[in-house]
Design goal:
alpha+beta, about 30% helix, single chain, four-stranded antiparallel β-sheet
Length: about 240
Amino acid sequence: KTRWDWTWTERMSGRAQIGQLQVHLLRANGLRVADLVSSDPFVVVTLSGFDSGGDEWPVPQRQRRYSSIVASSCDPEFNETMSMEVGQAGAWLWFNVWDHDTYSDHDLLGKGSISLLDLAPTWEWQEFTLTLQNNEAPSQEDGFGELHVRVRYRAKVWAEVASWFWVENNVLPYPEFEIEAFYQVVQDFVASLWPVLQSVSALAALLGWRDRTMSLAALLLLLGLCLCGSSFSLVLLVHTALLAR
């Protein structure tokens, strides 16, 4: 079994692998000073995305990688490569640069992102310079620095296209069957269909159909025309019924 095979279990769990991704962290420059005279930066790289409702993917579908910590530098050199498996289409890469603190919470230095839709799936390195943003810190005249990365991505196109269709339906649990709700749906359906059945019965008597086949054909035709919602439906139905006599 290769990394590109789809198994039944993977499809049903929403974790089929449609592609492979590699991220090479090059360096950052111009990071803000978070400690007394410098910072101890490291990068958290997250592969995630959003469904059609705007909600982020469930935690089991996200992937996260951490760089090493570069001590006392606002212009760190990382030179690290990390790999990820892409589980569905529409993914994003999120880069959060943090200042490492041993005895308190880490400080966010800046963040940036790359959409996989902007990557050519050719397995060739593509270089990006991300201008870091930070809404949690006071604005700085020189900004929050830049992060330089290289990314390469390869995917099976048919797998990526197919993932758009099944991922949201298979990842989310199906609702439980409720008998009361089922009976209510049937009751509402019969109530909405009853006027149509009455109309067919009246037309059958008016037009004098000779056999049940004509009545069934009229019923199917009337149902179809009613679904179309056209004001011309009744006229067309009567005309067709007269031709079929």
